[in-house]
Write a structure and sequence with these properties.
binds ligand BES, alpha+beta, 18 helices, 613 residues, seven-stranded mixed β-sheet, globular, binds zinc ion
Length: 613
Amino acid sequence: MRLFALLLLSLIATSAAALDEHSYARYDRVRVRELYLDLDADFAQKQLAGFAELVLDWRDANARTLDLDTRDLTIERVAFADGQGGWHAARHALAARDPALGSKLTITLPRQAPRVRIWYRTSPQASGLQWLDAAQTQGKRHPFMFSQSQSIHARSWVPLQDTPAVRFTYRARIGAPAALRVVMSADNDPKATGAGGWRFTMPQKIPSYLLAIAVGNLEFRPLGKRTGVYAEPERIVAAAKELTDTEQMVDAAEALYGPYRWGRYDILVLPPSFPFGGMENPRITFATPTIIAGDKSLVSLIAHELAHSWSGNLVTNAAWKHFWLNEGFTNYVENRIVESLFGREMAQMQLVIDQTGLFESLRELAPGDQWLVPEIGAHRDPDEIFSDVPYVKGAWLLRTLEKRVGREAFDPFLRGWFDAHAFQSVTTDDFLDYLRKHLLDKHPDAISKAELHAWLFEPGVPKDALLAHSASFAAVDTARDRWLAGEIEADAIGAKGWVTQEWLHFLDELPATTTAAQLGELDSVWKLNATGNSEIALRWFRAGIRAGYQPIRVPLRAYLIEIGRRKLVVPLYEELAKKPADKQWALAVYAEARPGYHPVTQHTVDQKLGLAK
Ligand code: BES
Ligand code: ZN
């Protein structure tokens, strides 16, 4: 009897533990299968208001409650369908707000209703939306709004089971001011006019973090037969010019991993406050305008977001601790697409840049956060442990396997993984099972248990991990060393023919001892203070802060005020925070910049500058 009770207890414990710790959803009992959104975008109030209808799949005969995730939503009323065309008020309770997870909304039903409807309003501070004034756009005439749902921000604009373990299809009707266009992660139609509301259908099942919406003065340009770009009219020409390789990228990815399964692939170029480089919203990647360098040198970001159409959107991490299954796989696939479009040397250069970045971040990360599969814990927002580890270490593990078994074996294996788990959510254990059955069976010596364990559950990178090597970078290293040693002048470093990646590497490896005078020399020959390339500027400014090279201050200030992309501004504030005088200056610039930043960026910079409450 006692044994039985123990067994039962441990069963209950494992089933709860198998659920996503960052969601209140009990999807072992009931799952959302379809979503219908009927919302109006109100720019004066900075809110979305209307209702969400959820179609339910009941999985447990005894279940009568539906627990949803919400954050800062005002719930107006809730109704359930009786299945005979009638709707009835439903009992519901909104729990106290948890700082990491938001508020659980519990709907208690008299029976297992097929549908529920929730009428609600979002908060102007919704963590997943940014409402921009006209002044923050390029055209300066119309306001703009966009969502960023990953990781757990969909709950701030839709009450739902906000976990990547649950997938659903959706439809929507969105009302918006007449001058503006609405796009969603769905079947956007460039010819739609929005008369009577903008209507969308997403027929493929997606997890909640891929729900996306943007509203603004948008124009469309086709790029290829199934690709195109949306941007403000003032940016559309530059955007379309920069992104002409997009259709070819889709072809290259298909050649490697099978058909693109989402219909169209469009890109939305957002205003500069977009907090990320890119977001893989299905059918419409959201991208920062900082990738528009004028010479296509930063378009590997599109390869990355496109790659998610296989790794992430098709085969999805079932919880955020398995994030490397999204980003490590995507970083690997991105590099393969880059290699097939731009050649092996370009791909190698990017690998070296990634590895340099990884080693730098490993120096700062707690050992547990260096695991590929970290224990996040429900009290921590998954965004807080975001780092290079899942991306670069994850891809590095895959590349290790690729090297050991050869591409003839590894490419079909990876394609098989995507096919076998298409439109499903997966864990690291699922991957390990698949790896054993479909790769290690024929190549048992490819990797040992101990080595796999080291990659997944130990800090750092295994000692014998193969470092990437680039011949062009070896030449850059030599030039840098000779210049620093005073053997050659700045104009003799040979940078005339350098591509962006060579500059990134040159600047990444400038030693801390580089002086302001040396940076001055470099600047007078190579005009780095005037670079229009956001990635070069990031590294140049960081070197300038370290060396106390004052002429960077004017362009640096403009950069920090204009751009809200987290990866580009946070390292600069971090560098500035190291010396008291620089920190004073940073605080003054931030006071001006902060209102224009997205909540995600504000949150991180607040922490780095010691302003967090
Ligand atoms: N899915 C990520 C962005 C993300 C991750 C948003 C976690 C919120 C939480 C996207 O695919 C991504 O990785 N973007 C990178 C660019 C990429 C080239 C490494 C970025 O935004 O910098
Ligand atoms: Zn990604």
